[in-house]
Amino acid sequence: MSRLRRLSLWRAGAPVALLCAGLLFATSATNARGTDLRPSRNTTLAGLVEEQSRRSAALTRQHAALSGDIEKLQAQQGSMEPKLAKQLKDLSVAVGTTPVTGPGLTVTLKDAPPEVVRDNPDVDADWLVIHQQDIQAVVNALWEGGADAISIQNHRVISTTGIKCVGNSVVLHGVPYLPPYKITAIGDRRKLQQALDDSQYIENLQDYVVKFQLGYEVKNETAIAMPAYEGTLDLQSATVPGFERTPSVSPSTSGR
């Protein structure tokens, strides 16, 4: 009798269980809409930085394209006075909004190799990585050496360019980058090299290059094609004397 009762309960409960299972599968299918409910995510720092860099590069290209369209429309409104046009061209070169070419140098900075980090657990981690001060020191030395134009990670450096550390990355124009860091300068290669050699900061950096194998390499370049700066020129913090300060919504990094 007990056995027959259990069998009866099973026959009654089985359809209910199957119905519940069916509802769960249907709900999952509806929520997923044909996609994986647990998609894989790239949560590594390098992956996140690369993703943000790609997104920023796409937005920068879009901004440059729209700016080009605006310039074309402005040109269609009427020709500019030759003297004013030349002045605008000269200023564009100085500001960095015009591509330039010429000989120069490329300085590459790298963190210490993983094996050096592993073999020196008691060493301050800050001694084993490249910091914003290192990049700034190289840039300042190249300007001191008479550089006509400078780029970092193939992005043009202008007067409002800021370089800062955020975690293990360096942020340039609001975009994070991981090493190696490449700083390129167009100018007299002899004078640029001499300025690097004369820098006291870079001389101190060389001690860490020797002791902890930080990467510091200088390469002569016979022909550099440096892109124009394609971001916004709005100031976020700096002000012009004699002019009322106006708030800016520019996403660019504030000037040094």
TrEMBL record:
Keywords: Signal
A Pfam family that the UniProt record links to this protein: DUF881
Annotated signal peptide: 1-32
A cellular component term, taken from the record's GO annotations: plasma membrane
Protein's UniProt keywords contain Cytoplasm: no
InterPro entries: DUF881
Family membership noted in the UniProt record: Belongs to the UPF0749 family.
Protein known as: Uncharacterized protein YlxW (UPF0749 family)
Organism: Kribbella caucasensis
